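Example record used in the benchmark description.
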Amino acid sequence: METGDETRFDRGDETPERLKGQLSRLVGMTAAQLRRVAGEALGAVGARKDHFVVLATLAEFGSASQAALSDRTRIYKSDLVAVLNDLADGGWVRRAPDPVDRRRNVVTLTDSGERRLAELDRVLADVNERVMAPLDHDERRQLFALLGRVNAHLDTPPGRPGHA
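Model output (structure tokens):
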């Protein structure tokens, strides 16, 4: 498990200048720290990131088959089964046969699941606040906008419109 020290980007004189100039290293180490902080916060309330992802997806888009939920959340179907088992055991989702095609299950968010999602929203809002504490409102907005642009650029295959 990462303790945080391994994920520090800059250790002053111990870090070669050449490494300090590598965006992939900075972003990767920042992402590792974000995963750690968020994972610890979610773990403190008995949750995992994939729990939040599934609950948020169901809340926003409504009930879905497990296959559709896997596609939408980008959680592998085999991994999704374990996540759904956790969520069903907590009473946060309900799986039932699809009335149109009884060979598949439809997953539905329960009222308890909506309350759980609100709890996880608060936990992650606290994480965001902790992570973004050194930035003012405009810097936070700018960081999100810049990262969004970089992600959109990287998501566009070379030779397609929108790729430089």
